[in-house]
Write a structure and sequence with these properties.
alpha+beta; binds flavin-adenine dinucleotide; FAD-depend_C; globular; FAD/NAD-bd_sf; about 25% strand; FAD-binding_protein; 16 helices; single chain
């Protein structure tokens, strides 16, 4: 037995285990069901599924697959197998399975270095053991699971200002405070309690608080959101797992660690952020809400602090100068005033590609039917067996200048769905009353009768040039241009211009009484062809027709396009050093998160903040990898 155990020690992972819907307890069940045991037994060619010990298996991922390609809708699992527990069953049987392994192709040996906890416990362990400090995924300097050493600085605590309490600022603050820095978190918007009231006033009375709204305030742009936690930076990477486990520590449900498409919803994000805040305060972090950073204090080409004012004071008459050893700039991409301020310090800002377009809204039932056919009845407003249906579509547009008809053979732009919110609503994300832009949010059950998603087209400097916008903020001016046009087309008061998809495809405005929309501040029929340059409009038309071939029924008289979606990602990047995270044009400044051009979405912004936190801590001697 000992020989056997030595041979088969560890965890093996089985992936792509399909369980048909009728054999699965449903989307909310994350344990090992009889249906899953049967799927495992089938892959392992183990004759009697019921003899497999349930406790040998842990579900690490569960997703729902209703793609037309699969024979029938099914849940797809990834499962870890504790080999020792199987050995206790019948070593010879396991020997048989082991020999089978190369043929099965689905079984792989898991490395043992998995992230065991949330950031707080990881840093705690690092401090206790004086080893295992984080290294980055590429192995360079910060990350998770390496065997490097740690020391606490005995000198004065470095005073660090973190500007912005979005995911990047929160995670940077957490790491820095846990590692012993004296952190002040400065946020122009309000804490979630007051922010909720301000957003309520916006929706009910059309009062836009310029400093407390869907973009600004505690938790950043992602608080009143769908809270999707999907990311393109690798679901299983140590840093993403650490972020997810930290969210669970602060109150997110554990299923986000397993769900293939995890999301929280606004109702869960608000208490989570309150817990996050309390933890930071318990660590000694000073949090200043309603305080806007207006300028940087620079001495001898180094940032030595910030100039702040009460954010309700437009004249900045009560401004204060606060001195810090380092400033983490985590302001998101709606803080356009900050970009302007950085330029006044001769900082280098590099224009970046992003995407603009429209937000499409369908009845959720229609999307359920398109995606699930007969199974659509199982959705039951988010309480059913299968998740509320979503979609993700992308189309590359070929041809010169984006004109899909010229067919030159070169990809000129891509059109794709972005930030799809099943069971959600369209919301106003303007930060200025003369500009109109929108996005989507939902609650955890995704129970509303609407499904919305942005359909956006990638744009680059040639698009900005065409409208005579140049210089580092050309992309910002490009965004602003369409936000202003949309505000005018809506007729003011945050009314959103809309057009049915069928009319948009035919470039006409036949419907003056538009179908209903989830957008609460009112919609007005308009010809959205008048919004964008022609090649963007044509790319949208062309792609929508292609999406309808993929999702038959996508083109529908019930589908309504809303204008305008402009803030998909940052229009600039602030160059920084790859190891120290310090700005390459201003010492002492650490640009992080989406606004700095290093993230797109809640999780990637949190991960960037986390790494920045470690980098800043290292720069100030709070830990040292070299001993
Ligand atoms: P932000 O979250 O933008 O935070 C920046 C913070 O800095 C803000 O709180 C702002 O008030 C503050 N700030 C700005 N300037 C100053 C200043 N001068 N002084 C002091 N404070 C300042 N992403 C997802 O992954 N999933 C989703 O489901 C999702 N849905 C979204 C829905 C909506 C409505 C919106 C608007 C965004 C959504 N996003 C979503 C995007 C996501 O919110 C962002 O990618 C993410 O929040 C970026 O994090 P960040 O920390 O870099 O910046």
């Amino acid at each position: 037995i000992q020989d056997e155990e030595d041979k088969y020690d560890g965890i093996w992972r089985l992936s792509n285990l399909g369980v048909p819907v009728h054999r699965d307890p449903g989307k909310d069940f994350l344990g090992v069901s009889d249906g899953l045991l049967a799927a495992i037994a089938k892959v392992l060619k183990f004759p009697v599924a019921s003899m497999l010990p349930m406790d040998a298996f842990t579900v690490v991922r569960k997703s729902f697959d209703a793609r037309k390609l699969s024979k029938e809708p099914r849940f797809v699992y990834t499962v870890d197998i504790d080999v020792r527990k199987l050995l206790s069953l019948e070593p010879r049987t396991w020997d048989f399975i082991y020999r089978l392994k190369p043929k099965v192709g689905l079984v792989e040996h898991m490395p043992n270095e998995r992230v065991s906890g949330d950031l707080i416990s990881i840093i705690d362990d690092v401090k206790k053991n004086h080893q295992g400090s984080p290294t980055r995924e590429n192995g360079s300097n910060i990350g998770f699971g390496s065997e490097k050493s740690y020391k606490c600085s005995t000198t004065r605590k470095p005073k660090i200002a973190v500007v912005g309490s979005g995911p990047s600022g929160l995670f940077a603050s957490l790491v820095l405070a846990e590692l012993g820095a004296d952190v002040t978190l400065i946020e122009r918007g309000q804490a979630v309690e007051q922010r909720g009231r301000d957003i309520g006033a916006l929706i009910v009375r059309r009062v836009l608080q310029m400093e407390s709204n869907f973009c600004f305030g505690e938790g950043g742009a992602g608080t009143w959101s769908d809270g999707k936690l999907v990311t393109r930076i690798g679901r299983n990477s140590g840093s993403v797992l650490a972020v997810m486990k930290t969210l669970v520590h602060f109150g997110a449900p554990k299923n986000i660690l397993v769900d293939g498409r995890p999301h929280l919803g606004t109702d869960r994000l608000i208490p989570l952020l309150r817990n996050f805040r309390k933890h930071l305060q318990a660590l000694g972090v000073t949090i200043k809400f309603g305080t806007r950073v207006d300028d940087l204090l620079v001495e001898g080409e180094r940032v030595v602090g910030v100039k702040v004012s009460d954010s309700s004071d437009k004249l900045q008459s009560n401004s204060q100068k606060l001195r810090y050893d380092g400033v983490v700039l985590a302001v998101g991409h709606s803080a356009r005033d900050i970009y302007q301020m950085l330029l006044s310090h001769n900082m280098v800002l590099v224009p970046k590609d992003f995407a603009v377009g429209l937000r499409i809204e369908h009845p959720q039932e229609l999307i359920n039917r398109i995606q699930y056919s007969a199974l659509a009845t199982e959705v039951c407003k988010g309480r059913g067996k299968v998740p509320v249906a979503d979609y993700k579509v992308v189309k590359y547009v070929y041809g010169e200048d984006g004109d899909p008809r010229s067919n030159s053979g070169a990809i000129s732009c891509s059109c794709y769905s972005f930030c799809m919110c099943p069971g959600g609503q369209v919301v106003l994300t303007s930060t200025n009353p003369s500009e109109l832009c929108i996005n989507g949010m939902s609650f955890s059950r995704r129970a509303s009768k609407w499904a919305n998603a942005a359909l956006v087209v990638s744009v680059s400097s040639k698009d900005f040039d065409a409208l005579s916008f140049n210089g580092p903020l050309a992309g910002v001016e490009f965004q602003r241009e369409f936000e202003r046009r949309a505000a005018i087309m809506g007729g003011g008061n945050f009314v959103v211009p809309v057009q049915t998809v069928t009319d948009f495809l035919e470039n006409k405005l036949s419907v003056t009484s538009v179908p209903p929309s989830s957008y609460r501040l009112g919609v007005k029929a308009a010809n959205l062809h008048e919004l964008f340059p022609i090649h963007i409009t044509e790319a949208l038309q062309y792609s929508i027709s292609a999406f309808d071939r993929e999702l038959p029924g996508f083109i529908s008289s019930e589908a309504l396009l809303h204008g305008v979606e402009t803030r998909t990602s940052s229009p600039i990047q602030i160059p920084r050093d790859i190891d120290t995270y310090e700005s390459t044009s201003l010492k002492g400044l650490y640009p992080v998160g989406e606004g700095a051009g290093y993230a797109g979405g809640i999780v990637s912004a949190a991960v960037d903040g986390l790494y920045a936190g470690f980098a800043v801590a290292r720069n100030f001697g709070l830990y040292d990898e070299s001993i």
